[in-house]
């Protein structure tokens, strides 16, 4: 599988399944992001959004330290 995101690290082979409840607005935003980034699998898109959000939070925290 070709890497679609610049700077992404090799994904772990182990996957965990979570059930996530999204509002209509959150779902529409996630689907728009998925489509704009050419990702076919919604689970892959949500996983990448979580990864990006975590990296953003880590960066924000370290700017204040």
Q: What does this molecule look like?
A:
With 65 residues, the chain is an all-alpha fold. The chain has a domain at 41-65. Helix content is 54%, strand content 0%. It has helices spanning 24-36, 42-63. Helix 1 crosses helix 2. The longest helix is centred in the last third of the chain and has 22 residues, at 42-63. The relative contact order is 0.11. The mean pLDDT is 86.
Structural class: mainly alpha
- Output mean pLDDT: 86
**Which descriptor suits the 3D outline?**
globular
Taking the alpha carbons of the first and last residues, their distance comes to: 38 Å
Helix content: 40-55%
Largest sheet entry: none
Uncertain runs with pLDDT below 50, 5 residues or more? none
Count of helical regions? 2
**Proportion in β-strands:** under 5%
**Total strands:** 0
- The H/E string reads HH
What's the oligomerization state?
A: single chain
Rg of Cα set: 13 Å
What's this, in brief?
With 65 residues, the protein is mainly alpha-helical. The chain contains two helices and no strands.
């Amino acid at each position: 599988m070709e890497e679609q995101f610049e700077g992404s690290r090799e994904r772990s082979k182990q996957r965990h399944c979570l059930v996530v409840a999204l509002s209509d607005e959150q779902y529409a935003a996630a689907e728009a992001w998925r489509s704009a980034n050419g990702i076919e699998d919604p689970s892959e898109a949500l996983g990448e959004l979580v990864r990006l959000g975590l990296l953003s939070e880590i960066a924000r925290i370290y700017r204040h330290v």
